[in-house]
Specification:
- The structure is a single chain.
- With about 375 residues, this protein is an alpha+beta fold.
- The protein is about 25% helix and about 25% strand.
- It contains eleven helices and 20 strands.
- The longest helix has 18 residues.
Length: about 375
């Protein structure tokens, strides 16, 4: 068995591959950004082929820079941006459309339509989630209804759905040549299609959303052997762990006891608290979600507070306003003034998440006076 572990971290803005030694020290890391695509206001897309290409590149480069070979790795784990939705052709491996990113708000009309019968919490008892644009299920429906010919292919089982974890595992394990079509409970819990009690796809919700079960991956635990990688840089290394990015942070910070919590500052900001093997319903606008399920052990649940845009605001200031050249310049710029003059920015580019769940909210700069410059 190899002395190292590899981790794929496929995030909203970049892909990383990190190699750790037995003591948990980082031996090698490679990171590359991918394009953010904004076809319309409130729409956010990624090119799945570019993400797969970047993932292959960072794996190969991180292994080469540390002079490591596949036999040096004991296993590979995957953590990924959650809810981002890809539908691809099983026979060609090609996506039928760009990935719809978790921040994308184009399904707001579906949300309003479904909320008319049963309100925004219609599916919360089963899924722990309110009706909102955030989750994968309605994004799948949008692709089925707006990309010609895809629904027929889906019903025949010829197109596959996956969040990023599923898409990467399928490609890593062979793709069109017997690639494994699976997901873990944490990612499945963010589709709004999985029943939190049974940990399986919910037939009633699939019927209401109009999603053929044939296109969905098999739901497995967060820690087991899913398959063997088939890339030259990691040939035959077992893929043994999958956690959605925020749950991966919860596990990485060893929050294994009920009541332990972590906060992540990244593209967005996410607070997760372990509630143990008990599913806790929030009365304060938090999400009830999966924390993790390790092998055959009981599933653990969590409560989550989510903010869509935090670190991504810095990227927006860089790319859309051109006020800075690189993200790290933001702090130096902020330090050039003594205070904010009472001005503040609410970056609700994708609506307001917890606790409000207002899909129609948008970014606002408030409290401007003539003092501001």
């Amino acid at each position: 068995m190899g002395d190292y572990i590899g981790a794929i971290d496929q995030g909203t803005t970049s892909s990383r591959f990190i190699v750790f030694d037995r003591a948990g020290h980082v031996v090698s890391v490679c990171q590359k950004e991918h394009e953010q695509i904004y076809p319309n206001p409130g729409w956010v897309e990624h090119n799945p082929d570019e993400i797969w290409q970047r993932t292959r590149e960072v794996m190969a480069e991180a292994m080469a820079s540390a002079n490591l070979h596949p036999e040096d790795l004991a296993a590979i784990g995957i953590t990924n941006q959650r809810e981002t939705t890809i539908v691809w052709n099983r026979k060609t491996g090609k996506p039928v459309h760009n990935a719809l990113v978790w921040q994308d708000t184009r399904v707001a009309d579906y949300v309003n339509e479904l909320a008319k019968n049963g309100g925004p919490d219609r599916f919360r008892p089963k899924t722990g989630l309110p009706l909102t644009t955030y989750f994968s299920g309605l994004k799948i429906r949008w692709i089925l209804e707006n990309v010609q010919g895809v629904r027929e292919l889906a019903e025949a089982g010829d197109v596959l759905f996956g969040n990023i974890d599923t898409f990467l595992v399928w490609h890593l394990t062979g793709g069109c040549n017997c690639g494994v079509h699976i997901t873990d409970v944490t990612n499945a819990s963010r589709t709004q299609l999985m029943n939190l009690d049974t940990l399986s796809w919910d037939e009633e919700i699939l019927m209401v959303f109009g999603i053929p079960k044939a296109m969905l991956p098999k739901i497995l635990s967060s820690s087991e052997i899913y398959g063997l990688a088939q890339l030259p840089s990691v040939m035959d290394v077992p893929i043994t762990g999958i956690l959605g990015d925020q749950q991966a942070a919860l596990v990485g910070q060893t929050c294994f006891e009920p009541g332990e919590a972590k906060n992540t500052y990244g593209t967005g900001c996410f607070l997760l608290m372990n509630t143990g093997t008990r599913k806790v319903d929030s009365k304060s606008g938090l999400l009830t979600t999966m924390a993790y399920k390790l092998g055959n052990q009981a599933a653990h649940y969590a409560l989550e507070g989510s903010i869509a845009i935090t670190g991504a605001l810095v990227q927006w200031v860089r790319d859309n306003l051109g006020l800075i050249q690189k993200s790290s310049d933001i702090e130096a710029l902020a330090r050039t003034v003594s205070d904010n003059g009472g001005v503040y920015f609410v970056p609700a580019f994708s609506g307001l998440y917890a606790p409000y769940w207002k899909d129609n909210a948008r970014g606002v700069i408030a409290a401007l006076t003539r003092y501001a410059n």
